[in-house]
Amino acid sequence: MKRLFTAFPALGLSLLAASWNANGAELPRLRFSYGDWEIACDNTRTCRAAGYDSENSSDAGDNDGAGQRRMSVLLTRKAGPDTPVHAELQIGTYEDTQSAAPLPRTLSLTMTIDGKEHGKVAVTADNPTVDLAPGQTRALLAALTRVSKIAWTDGPFTWRLSDAGAAAVLLKMDAFQGRVGTPGALVRKGARLETSVLAPLPEPVVRVPALDDRAIDLPAPRLAALRQALKAPADTCTEPDNIDGTPGDIAVWRLTGGKLLASLPCWRAAYNEGAAYWVVNARPPYAPRLVTTAGNGYASGTIGSSLKGRGLGDCFSFDEWTWDGKGFVHSSEGDTGDCRLVAPGGAWVLPELVSAVQPARSTNRP
Question: What domains appear along the chain, each with residue ranges and CATH number?
Fold first, then answer.
């Protein structure tokens, strides 16, 4: 089940923050999916590729009567010459009672590729995610470039990784990091020097000034004037009022430089909701500047957005916008991967935008 994030009215509207971070569009990033694999590469040129069990349950069943066992593998590779791939295996925990034969608390999984064993990995009920050994990782990467049968088993319990789409995703990783035609390429190796591989980029640094996180109360006349000034896009903020029809509450926080942050309810969906956030002058004229209509929380100088991909809660998208004293910088963006029932909250963190946020000491007063 692919991500359903684009179904929500506020998603995709994080681009409304672009006016605060004009350089954001220039940062390299990649999002691509094919078959049962997907990849996200962030602005430091780090890439993360996730693969899953087959969506075709007839290809992913086991022999213990459980049917399709959920699982995923994450391949992480930083940019730069001669950089290794780090591989992690995660067995599904979303449905603890997915089988008539309950899983033991400790599993010793034998990794097999086309029937050949490649060592074991230990998985426990408290830690369903485990690193693969370097030799296992090399064998897995080689298998993913061809048609292969990849599985982890312990007695009657089996988890099968799909290879559908893996080669296309790994080629995208090679191309994004400038590895095509080099010895370190995963798919199209060649004799081009490793020194030609693109170098990693540093995380943008966002320095947050000292802020008082407490919401402030404006006098009624000023609050009414502020409400009049806040104009959200009508096609996005479809439900600015409370459920009972009364006007939505305005929340206000003090920023720095004579600015305030103000928010109003914006929209509601079956299992998500979003608020609009503006930076305004501390005194009229307020001259509001819209940051986002997808926010659902503010603390320590950062507006956050966390939205379910679907009601089951097995996949989320996330964004953050952080105050740097002049404006809100889009400081984080990504999601938790496809909606595959691997884990509550999603299987992995797949960022497309990362930043080094350096908070200042809070000025909260007792």
Answer: 28-196 (2.60.40), 205-358 (no CATH)
